[in-house]
Amino acid sequence: MLYGAVADGPWYVQLMRDRSDVSAFRDQIIFGRAFADAAAPATSLQNEQAPAAAVAGTAVAGAMSRGVIRTTCPYCGVGCGLGVAADGALSGDAEHPANGGRLCSKGAALADTLVSDGRLLSPQVGGRNVSWDEALDRIAVTFAKTMADHGPDAVALYVSGQFLTEDYYVANKLMKGFVGSSNIDTNSRLCMASSVAGHIRAFGEDIVPGCYDDIEAADLVVLVGSNMAWCHPVLYQRLAATRQARGTEIVVIDPRHTPTCDIADIHLPIRAGTDVAVFAGLLAHLAASGVCNPAWTDNFAAGFAAALETAQQSAPSLAEVAKVADVPTTDLGRFYDRFGATERTVTFYSQGINQSSAGTDKVNAIINCHLATGRIGRPGMGPFSLTGQPNAMGGREVGGLANQLAAHMSFAEPTDIDRVRRFWQAPRMVTRAGLKGSICSMPRSTAASRRCGSSTPILPSACPAPNGCAQRWVPVPL
Q1: CA distances from 315 to 50, 62, 289, 323 (A)
Q2: Residues 71, 107 contacting (CB under 8 angstroms)
Q3: What is the DSSP code (8-state) at residue 449?
């Protein structure tokens, strides 16, 4: 249950259609050996026999002196802090800002994966075990020959959202500064590309103007295209606790009635694909209600008048938007009124927004509402993209995508290219973006290396079989 596409897969839909009671199973997934009090005693999960409500999270600070290593959960985009002891005992890191000691059932069961059965324990070439020297030499020789025969753009790297930031940086530097090709892409291409484009269009850079602490600071939280309860469970628990403690209002905008709706004050089951209309209507409503902040937009934004005019034309009235979105006018009006009346508002969005043919427009429709009101970059307010893997943002920070340079610099600016070249002392600095998407679909790529992930289960049509891939497909399952 790592992603919405899995957690809300056909089996779950069938249960709902059959009107089956899924609450017990759902609670096991969401609460399972999960959200424990951060002050609870450490629990070894290897031998845990406790019931579903058993404690899984715990303070790690005191255990550091006992040889516990602090690390990060490799699953969803929350990036929870963990403490792992030499004997495999695992606990939540109470000092980590993302989870404060909490773990969901996936993170709590990580110790169960620390086994050798079924794992690749050494490199393999042609089905036989080889030494690291032989494997790395094979890759280096293949890449070098391919580059000599076909040029640097004949090779590519595909890297995962589970890479460490430092590894991302080295791989990016290798390709763009020394191999001389921008053919390196991360899993952000699969899940976050719409947000990347939307952020660049709105802010000039791929930046997220918020942090998890905004959950506790917000008075209104809007969740769009996000089943946070299953896909980002620890954040869901933080939000549920905040709602209980301070009455935070929650609006869920999702065609489905997901477990996240359990804590929603308003659920808008909009027709799929109508998000732009809903937020265009919100922008028009904010302007008509006098909620926009012209002093802020005049000083810190550009293009507001044109954006508002477009929104008013595409969403001329509340009734028209409600008809397009197929939701009750009264419910949509309540959402618009609550957004307009609540300064400390955070809009969380995830794959329901990003993975769409109009994903970038959806992202910007959301951002526009926060820019128009000046509700951005301050505690408890702003648009917030929830990523799919723990370090998808780390890869983007160091320019891991094919169309990015390190530190949010751009191929469109010659001075940026020169700055990176000088800093890297790069002999073969690239000057243009590379091929995007799965490396299997890169038409000019004849040698490719996959690091820390696999795109083929996600994009099977891009690589139906090894014979359908590139001439020299060199998978590196590390």
Answers
A1: 54, 56, 15, 11
A2: no
A3: E
**Domain residue ranges in the chain:** 31-113, 124-190+393-473, 193-385
Greatest pairwise CA separation for the chain in angstroms = 70
Which amino acid does the sequence have at 298?
D
CATH of 124-190+393-473, one of 3.40.50.740, 3.40.50.1170, 3.40.1010.20, 3.10.180.10: 3.40.50.740
Coil, helix or strand for 180? coil
Do the domains 193-385 and 124-190+393-473 match in fold?
no
Buried b (16+ CB within 10 A) or exposed e, 365-401: bbbbbbbbbbbbeeebbbbbbbbbbbbbbbbbbbbbb
- Can you tell me the distance from the alpha carbon of 171 to that of 158, in angstroms, rounded to the nearest whole number? 10
* pLDDT (tens digit per residue) in 18-75: 555 544 544 444 443 333 333 333 333 333 322 222 233 334 444 444 588 999 888 8
Nearest C-alpha neighbor of 384 from the set 363, 405, 404: 363
pLDDT tens column, 208-255: 899 999 999 999 999 999 999 999 999 999 999 999 999 999 999 999
How far apart CA 9 and CA 55 sit, in angstroms, is: 28
At which residue do the structure tokens 């779950």 appear? 12
Distance CA 40, CA 172 (A): 41
We find that the CATH architecture of domain 193-385 is 3-Layer(aba) Sandwich (3.40)
Task: Kindly compute the dihedral angle of the four CA atoms of residues 344, 350, 352, 355, in this order, to the nearest 10 degrees.
Answer: 130
